[in-house]
Amino acid sequence: MLTICYDPYSGTLGRFTRAEIFGLVTEAGYEGINIPVNSAFLGELSTAEIEDAMKLADQHNLVAPTIGFGNHILTTPTQKDEALQHFEIVLDVARQFDAAFIGVWVNPSADVSRQDSLDALADNLSQMIPACQEHDIKIALEFEKGCPLDNYREGVEFISDTGLSVYLTCDTYHLNNDGGDPHAAALAMKECLGDVHVSGSNRGEPGGGVFDFETFAKGLKQINFSGPLVVQYKMEDVASIKRSCEFTQKFREMIQS
């Protein structure tokens, strides 16, 4: 189902409390919310903090199909133990929210080569995937210019080369920065595509800038994309939360038309 979700992100986290964020997301008309497993949203990641987030989701009738890994160390060879310890918390949150995806930003690591970063990522993922599969949870990797997975082509290649059962997160902001054709990108990712982040081409609210959403929607329709649409942008104007939801509803209609 093409569930429309809001990702608490830059401009939202730190400006509003967790309870206020849930309220804003509900009032704006979203069906779901991404849960970032980090201190900015879940405090000390304690049982009480996680239970509070679950109560808020239930109170506001919001689903959470995506869970953000939050601690960006999966590409760091020297922090594998810490990464897997954090994964245990993330998996527990994903299970409790009955999430479909755990989202991982494949970040660059200081003083680590691209190949060593990808090797560390592959090793960590190989240990995470079996536990995820037990609970029918998928892992989605987000590519970005300048990161170990610079673009969707490298993402598809990584999945093919490693044989790992993982997926891709395609952010329209990152796809625009890559300069590729959105329709061709959708077709190339096809069954590798897990979820889509919806953003303006300048990281502002969705619909702003030059990204061709209509062409991208045609490609997503062709591959029968059904994953969640997660609105993620730098929020400055609070009213943009609702506008972004309305834009993404139209984007969903393009995909389903």
Could you characterize what this model shows?
With 257 residues, the chain is an alpha/beta fold. Helix content is 46%, strand content 13%. It is built from ten helices and nine strands. The chain has helices at 18-28, 39-42, 47-59, 80-96, 114-134, 152-162, 172-178, 182-189, 213-222, 240-256, and strands at 4-6, 32-33, 35-36, 66-68, 101-105, 138-142, 167-171, 193-198, 229-231. The chain has a nine-stranded parallel sheet. Helix 1 (18-28) crosses helix 10 and helix 4 (80-96) packs parallel to helix 5. It is globular and about 45 Å long.
Low-confidence stretches: none
Structural class label = alpha/beta
Mean pLDDT: 98
**Helix content percent band:** 40-55%
Order of helices and strands: EHEEHHEHEHEHEHHEHEH
The strand line-up of the biggest sheet is 2-1-9-8-7-6-5-4-3
Strand and helix layout:
Blueprint: E1 4-6, H1 18-28, E2 32-33, E3 35-36, H2 39-42, H3 47-59, E4 66-68, H4 80-96, E5 101-105, H5 114-134, E6 138-142, H6 152-162, E7 167-171, H7 172-178, H8 182-189, E8 193-198, H9 213-222, E9 229-231, H10 240-256
Parallel strand pairs: 1-2, 1-9, 3-4, 4-5, 5-6, 6-7, 7-8, 8-9
Helix pairs in contact: 1-10, 4-5, 8-9, 9-10
In short:
With 257 residues, this protein is α/β, with parallel strands linked by helices. It contains ten helices and nine strands. It is globular.
Main traits of this protein?
single chain, 257 residues, alpha/beta, nine-stranded parallel β-sheet, 10 helices, 9 strands, globular
